[in-house]
Design the sequence.
């Protein structure tokens, strides 16, 4: 085994060390945010309390009083969950049809769906505001759910399509022989078989909905405002409130970062549309 | 099979929804870009309602092209996007190659590394510009202050004091200033998107032909030439995809620019659209059409690449 024998000293000690340094470096800002969230606002800006300080939960307790955190969090959860459910509800039948009954146009339809994702949001912001205000939908949960669904639908359909394509057609056809109708096929055969793929697609869709900041900030004021609106509203250079700001930020991104750890692999497939395997 | 039609019909809701979502706002933007349309005008109140009688032809486009910020916004968009692409691809390849071989704690390092990608853009910007880059209260300010204090202390030291007294006092950089706000955006977005590049390159590296590599080693190829002639060509396609996906995302950066400096010295096309849209909807719409054209140029290349592998 000449190859193993050639492993250099770098490979044995240097590589792991360097890799850990890089990993910790990238994670550091998140760690710092979480650490700062346990400092009082006064301690947060004092060099002598950089690392050693008396931890406090006050920021998290005050968060609800000063920032009305729970209302924004509730809106984020409602809109992201509902949008994910709705996207899957529309996306699963669509991806099913494309994967098992493809027509000559399927490829073009998929490409076109993807191209809707590339439309710069800013270019259509004013018309969207105009339409939603005149339809009385501005700042409603319904609107945000709809918008979140639509911006994520292309990616969701793509991901589902790549998963469904892996399922042998025979299994689906066997179901047809047994007399299952289309809905039965989807419910009884497809969903159980592709459960893992559907779950990770849903997770990724949820993360994207949660992090969306362009439309949710611009199409809401109070009633349907999500956590991105809360953060963007508190972006002023409030040096004296680093502790509080960190607590709000950590509470806004914490759950999502943890969820994200579980769907790294799907992320690759989802964001490269199956082009990198 | 008789029920072939029903499955096809299942695509309709998704297709219709996306069609409406795309065509109506885009159609309205196109329409607004050809008329005079402002939100407030005391002198010409008839311009405040969209109507064909306010037709302006290509007047809005001319106005936008002549405005002083337009060229700057395009240049700045390209500067920000290209810098981020350059940094994320280089860092991404290096880090992916670094952590691709197994070592103790590889899984944990991967998790640490990917985390920034899931941070909300608004939080990313608030976190970096306040707590890290702030010239007084942020870590940058604290670090620079600490170094200055240390040097001042050493100036009185015996024997070496003269050496340190010749050192200049360091000044922290204010990243909210006109000249530097673009760099702040580049730093924070690079931090967020390098993990994405790493993840994609790592996925691709795992499918690299190991036998080929072993053969190369037996032929006496050193690490550099393995990287240069085997790994890098293997990564060419993922690199192209990372570049294009990021280009599409970063051409529409907004939250970061808004939070760092409210566009002071650092505008891109979406930001310029937002500024026009405070009053001049016609000009904002014309700028929007320019942004659509720019995004489409990138999108065509991306779609071609993805299309090739689609039906495999």
Sequence:
């Amino acid at each position: 085994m000449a190859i193993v024998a050639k492993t250099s000293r770098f490979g044995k000690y240097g590589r792991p060390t360097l890799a850990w340094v890089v990993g910790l470096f990238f994670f550091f800002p998140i760690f710092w945010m979480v650490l700062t969230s346990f400092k009082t606002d006064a301690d947060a800006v004092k060099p002598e309390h950089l690392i050693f300080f008396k931890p406090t939960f006050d920021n998290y307790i005050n968060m609800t009083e000063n920032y009305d955190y729970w209302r924004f969090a509730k809106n984020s959860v409602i809109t992201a969950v509902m949008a994910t459910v709705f996207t899957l509800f529309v996306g699963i039948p669509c991806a099913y049809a494309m994967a098992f009954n493809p027509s000559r146009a399927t490829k073009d339809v998929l490409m076109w769906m993807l191209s809707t994702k590339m439309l710069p949001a800013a270019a259509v912001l004013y018309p969207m505001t105009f339409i939603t205000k005149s339809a009385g939908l501005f700042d409603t949960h319904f609107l945000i759910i709809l918008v979140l669904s639509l911006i994520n639908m292309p990616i969701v359909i793509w991901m589902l399509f790549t998963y469904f394509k892996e399922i042998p057609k025979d299994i689906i056809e066997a179901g047809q022989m047994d007399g299952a109708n289309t809905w039965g096929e989807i419910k009884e055969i497809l969903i159980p078989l592709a459960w893992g793929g559907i779950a990770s697609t849903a997770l990724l869709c949820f993360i994207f909905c949660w992090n969306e900041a362009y439309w949710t900030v611009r199409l809401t004021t109070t009633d349907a405002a999500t956590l991105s609106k809360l953060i963007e509203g508190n972006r002023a250079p409030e040096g004296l409130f680093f502790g509080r700001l960190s607590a709000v930020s950590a509470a806004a991104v914490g759950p999502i970062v943890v969820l994200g750890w579980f769907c790294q692999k799907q992320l690759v497939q989802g964001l490269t549309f199956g082009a990198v395997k | 099979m008789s029920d072939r039609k029903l499955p096809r019909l299942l695509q309709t809701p998704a297709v219709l929804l996306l069609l409406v979502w795309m065509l109506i706002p885009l159609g309205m933007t196109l329409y607004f870009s050809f008329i005079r349309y402002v939100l407030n005008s005391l002198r010409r109140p008839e311009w405040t309602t969209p109507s064909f009688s306010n037709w302006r032809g290509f007047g809005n486009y001319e106005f936008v092209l002549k405005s002083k910020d337009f060229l700057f916004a395009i240049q700045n968009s390209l500067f920000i996007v290209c810098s981020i692409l350059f940094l994320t691809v280089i860092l991404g390849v290096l880090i992916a190659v670094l952590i691709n071989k197994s070592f103790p704690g590889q899984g944990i390092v991967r998790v640490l590394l990917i985390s920034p990608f899931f941070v909300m853009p608004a939080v990313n910007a608030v976190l970096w510009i306040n707590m890290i880059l702030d010239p007084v209260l942020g870590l940058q300010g604290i670090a620079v202050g600490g170094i200055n204090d240390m040097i001042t202390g050493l100036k009185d030291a015996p024997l070496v004091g003269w050496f340190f007294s010749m050192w200049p006092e360091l000044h922290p950089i204010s990243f909210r200033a006109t000249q530097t706000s673009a760099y702040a955006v580049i730093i924070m977005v690079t931090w967020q998107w390098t993990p994405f590049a790493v993840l994609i390159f790592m996925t691709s590296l795992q499918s690299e032909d190991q036998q080929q590599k072993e053969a190369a080693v037996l032929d006496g190829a050193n690490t550099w030439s393995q990287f240069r002639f085997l790994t890098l060509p293997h990564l060419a396609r993922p690199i192209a995809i990372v570049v294009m996906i990021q280009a599409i995302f970063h051409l529409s950066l907004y939250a970061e620019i808004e939070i760092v400096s409210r566009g002071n010295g650092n505008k891109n096309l979406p930001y310029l659209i937002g500024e026009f849209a405070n009053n001049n909807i016609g000009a904002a719409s014309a700028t929007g059409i320019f942004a659509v054209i720019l995004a489409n140029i990138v999108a065509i290349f991306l779609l071609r690449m993805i299309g090739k592998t689609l039906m495999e």
